[in-house]
Amino acid sequence: QVQLVESGGGLVQAGGSLRLSCTAHGSIASINTMGWYRQAPAKQRELVATIASGGTTNYADSVKGRFTVSRDNAKNTVYLYMNSLKPDDTAVYYCYHRNGPGILYHNYWGQGTQVTVSS
Predict the structure, then answer these.
(1) pLDDT tens digits, one per residue of 4-50
(2) Hey, how many other C-beta atoms are within 10 angstroms of the C-beta on 8?
(3) Which among 4, 7, 37, 64 is least buried, having the fewest CB atoms inside 10 angstroms?
(4) Which is nearest to 36 in space by CA: 24, 21, 50?
(5) What integer pLDDT is reported at residue 104 of this predicted model?
């Protein structure tokens, strides 16, 4: 089992920056993917960014060039550096952990942290 603990949400002005952190605890597979999804009011939960244990990243088009996802494998921690924030970035951000390779993996979700960007 894996538990995800998120931190770093808050209220910022448009153009500002924020860093989210998520640490995984439990039976962490050496091959895994961590990242972030978000859900805004009246919208479906969407992928923001992911990073595999080997370093491969994936970003939503809406955040490319503004957000950066990174990880510390030794600490089982993933970060999301959010720059040039826009009001449209306002959402609950959920940490994601895909634990294990191939078809034998399990998905886990953090509790969510609110990011609010004012205009």
Answers:
(1) 999 999 999 999 999 999 999 999 999 999 999 999 999 999 999 99
(2) 16
(3) 64
(4) 50
(5) 85
| Contact between 6 and 113 (Cβ < 8 Å) | yes
Task: Please report where in the chains the tokens 């995984």 appear, as a residue.
Answer: 24
pLDDT tens digits for 54-81?
Answer: 999 999 999 999 999 999 999 999 999 9
How many other CB atoms are found less than 10 A from the CB of residue 11? Answer: 12
Using alpha carbons only, give the angle 48, 54, 57 rounded to the nearest 5 degrees.
25
Q: Report the C-alpha gap between 102 and 114 in whole angstroms.
A: 32
60 in Cβ contact with 48 (< 8 Å): yes
Q: Which two tokens stand for residue 106?
A: 């399990």
Q: Which residues of 24-42 are buried (b: 16+ CB within 10 A; e: fewer)?
A: beeeeeeebbbbbbbeeee
